[in-house]
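Hey,

The postdoc asked me to send both predictions to you directly instead of through the lab channel. I've kept everything plain text so nothing gets mangled by the mail client. Protein one:
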Amino acid sequence: MEEGLQGVLMGAVLVMFLIAMESALQAVDSSEALEQTVEERMMEQRTITVQRISEKESDVFGWMKYLEE
């Protein structure tokens, strides 16, 4: 009887361990997905910043050309 109870407890511990491992793997996957999203947004922001700088440069060159005339 006692051995059967120990087996049930060991099984329960194993199930809890597997659930914890699954949760840990999901957390790692979520972390990696979040990191990828952050990197993508940083690249998008960098692209937008470069575009804005290019627009400002174009405006400056336009004014310089206008003032030279």
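Protein two:
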Amino acid sequence: MDTKKVGGNAKGMTQFHQLLIKNLKTYRKQRGYSQMKLAHLCSVSPNYIGEIEMGRKFPSADTMDKIIFALNLKPYQLFFSEEDISGVDQILQNHYEQAKSNVASYVAEALRIYQATGASGEQIQTDIADIMKNMELQSRNKSKDS
């Protein structure tokens, strides 16, 4: 297990580390897990979970993945305050709702056009396949630009 020892008190810890400790304890308790139960789910010793929660050790990336999975969290949830998380969740929800609305409008407009032109079901399927390919290409290009 690759861990890094850190200062054992709040003065020696970063805000990031303090949030990790606070959130780990909070989510573990919300799930009704003891340190022993979480340790078992993560294949680490109960003492190790205790050391993390006391700020004496910082988990490796592998252990962090196991903790996130065991607690059924989104990765960012361990590193943000509740206020930040609710803000992020609201932003994501807003984007989702806007995207859903845009797609619904686009589909309604496309169907109106197809009905007006008398396009066949086969033509509609071909056009949808072309749109999906273009969307995939645009997504790949955006990923390359990032």
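Summary for protein two, as requested: The chain has six helices and two strands.

Thanks,
C.
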